[in-house]
Amino acid sequence: MPVSILGPAAPSSIILPFFSFCVPAGFPSPAQDHMEGTISLDELMDIRAPHTYMARADGDSMVDVGIFDRDILIISRGRSAERGEVVIAALDNEPLVKIFDRKDDQVVLRSANRKFPPRYLLESEELQVWGVVSFSIRFHGRY
C-alpha cells in the first residue's frame, strides 16, 4: 500500500472534553455529568514532535489491521521496528505501509489483506524503515 507523506506533526494547544464512559453505537448522547475532564490528542497519540509525522494511506492492502484507503497515519520515527509492527518504509525510495517481519535472515514485508502476497526483500533492493505506525485516523463524513 503506497503512502503520501503529509509532513511532521506539530504540537497543539487544543484540549478536548473527555467523557468517562464508552459511547454506545445507539442513540444516547453524552451527558455533562459523565465528563471526566479534558484530554490532549498530543498526549493520547503520544505525538512528540519532531519524532512524529503523518502520512495518508493509499489502497486496500492493510484493511485487516484497520488501515483503509485515505486514512491518516500517525508515525513515530523515535524507535526501531519490531517483528509484526506496521511500518512506513521505503523500498527503493518508494514509500509504502506494510507489516515488518523476518523469516530466518530475510526481511519480509507483509500486507494485511489476503489478496496481496508477502514481499520478500531481494539482495539488490534497498529498504529503509521510516517509522512505526502507532495510530490511524479515519474521516467518517462525506467526501
Automatic annotation (TrEMBL):
Key words, A-Z: Autocatalytic cleavage, DNA damage, DNA repair, Hydrolase, SOS response
InterPro entries according to UniProt: LexA-like, LexA/Signal_pep-like_sf, LexA_repressor, Peptidase_S24_LexA, Peptidase_S24_S26A/B/C
Domain Peptidase S24/S26A/S26B/S26C: residue ranges: 22-133
One of the Pfam families matching this protein, by short name: Peptidase_S24
Source taxon at top rank: Bacteria
Classification via NCBIfam families: PRK10276.1
Similarity comment: Belongs to the peptidase S24 family.
Protein name: Ultraviolet light resistance protein A
